[in-house]
Amino acid sequence: MESIDIFIGEHVLRISSASSAVMSLFSRTFPTVIRCSSFDFEPAIAVHLDEGYGSPFVDYNVGKQQTDTGTVRYARTDYIIETDEDCKQVAIKFHDELALKHAFMHLYSLYIVRSGWGLLIHSSCVTDNCGGHMFTGRSGAGKSTAAALSESESRGIIADEATILRIRPDEVTVFHSPFRSEIQTAAHLEPGQWRLSSIHLLHQAEQHRRVPIARSEGLIRLMDKVFFWNPSTDDTKAIIGLLRQTVHLVPLYDLYFRKDPYFWELISS
After folding, report:
1. Nearby residues of 186 by Cβ (< 8 Å), 6 or more positions away
2. Residues 6+ positions from 232 with CB-CB distance below 8 Å
3. Average pLDDT of adjacent 10-residue blocks, the chain of 269 residues
4. CATH 3.40.50 spans which residues of the chain?
5. CA-to-CA distance for 267 and 65, rounded, in angstroms?
């Protein structure tokens, strides 16, 4: 049996498997994950991995089933998660690297919503001296492009696909995210957090322009940006509550931008 301890957000996860090949695949799937010394911290979540499940990805539909032993199973064609109600003891079986990535995003989003800690948002996020700035929008709007154009000596990319939000009554903070698509470099490889200073919904345009969004509209427009599979009524209420706190604390904007870094003049002004 092999195991490693990793940080995601403020949480330590203990990852284990009977297969060294599975552990190597985990490292390749999440090359920017932050490791911590084994047994220095009590893990919030223990995850056992096994491969050889199912078939390649078909769609995002996930089935949910309560077992006779009191655990819950979440199954897709390419992975299955079996967990206790608190998402602290977890077994994941997966088909391939994509399945492993999506299963971990599924598990982590489930854990942070159920615990009231925060949300996983489909977005990129860049940090500067003033905090974090999140970029989201419809598919193809330019989330990864905005992040790539932003990188500089004074700005670092902490997410290009999924931003981790810690939502408190008085502040929203963001963390380095190992859930990445195109940009596998990380500005910070130590545990840390940055205050979220702004949220931008992206639109590609000929000229740079930034327009404030009302809180109520922003909440509605962020709903489908939350990574969460097969929510129950209670999960949906929790997500709405966390989004309501977010839009109350963080200003939202429509950001119209062309493919150059000068849109930062609007954000930094």
Report:
1. 32, 156, 157, 158, 176
2. none
3. 92 96 95 78 92 95 91 96 94 97 96 97 90 92 87 85 96 94 56 91 95 96 94 93 98 95 89
4. 120-268
5. 45
Check if the beta carbon of residue 164 is closer than 8 Å to that of residue 193.
no
Question: CA 138 to CA 225: how far, in whole Å?
Answer: 8
User: Hey, how many other C-beta atoms are within 10 angstroms of the C-beta on 208?
Assistant: 16
Residue 185: what pLDDT? 55
Hunting for tokens 């992040």 — which residue is that?
Answer: 147
Q: Would you say domain 120-268 falls under CATH 3.40.50?
A: yes
Pairing mode, strands 72-76 and 79-83: antiparallel
Contact (Cβ atoms closer than 8 angstroms) between residue 160 and residue 147:
yes
- pTM of full prediction above 0.90: yes
- Give the type of residue at 130: C
**Alpha-carbon separation of residue 165 from 64, 79, 255 (angstroms):** 25, 25, 20
The CA distance from 269 to 267, in Å, is 6
185, 189, 215 from 181: Cα distances, Å = 11, 17, 29
